[in-house]
Write the structure tokens for this entry.
Amino acid sequence: MSATIIDGKAIAEVVRAGVAEKVKELKARGVEPCLAVILVGANPASVSYVTGKRKALAEAGMRDMSVDLPEDTSEEKLLSIIEKLNNDKSVHGILVQLPLPKHINEDKVIMAIKPEKDVDGFHPVNVGNLMIGRPGFLPCTPHGIMVLLERMNINTNGAHVVVLGRSNIVGKPVSLLFLRREYNATVTICHTGTKNTAELTRQADILIAAVGKPNTVTADMVKPGAVVIDVGVNRIPDSSKKSGCRLCGDVDFEAVKEVASYITPVPKGVGPMTIAMLIANTLEAAERTLSL
């Protein structure tokens, strides 16, 4: 029997609708949640992501303080804009779309954003809070994965989770989340230095694929009945598409869905949840200002 398809798009819409209701309540109390999304250059993928974020902001009734900058913007100029937004009390969240042009130091830019406005959850303070279990902004994609599992009533307690990939954006933080007591999983991380990857993935009750390579996970790498979460977003040539390419994940979806119990598709799986959690983090940032 084929796996149950986890409809990330539908779940994200529910999350976003809940955020929109809370935004109305905040506005009634005199606080208008506001996010500044900074885009440097015109990388097609980045433009697409930013467009989706701005649409979500509008739908949630939040204020959009987006900033579009040319490719040749200096690091100094970008940092000065971030500083201005840091000091603007009406701006609750700041997000700089990555990747940045090569002449700009991404670490320096991430460090420049105030932790209380870092709704991407990338600042070392928020990463540290995640590590030790203190309150802080959770990175949007890992948080979105946990919400998907919760909404699908997938039990993580005592589960063996195998994570493919060790990036700072997905692999490492999602591993740390699964280790929290409320999820209580046992975690194995596989990466380019792992010698027996397929042997380990076949032990997974929950398999997270986040490596950025199409069809990395094949059916013979998946234990029957496992939950498979595909984080990959890869563009591969497809002459039948208007754009000349199509999106696919890191998992051989058609083959693996015949083995797994649950699986996320690409698109309409994890991707929509990332934006939903960004909007949720922005709401949280605005709510925090009420208690200051």
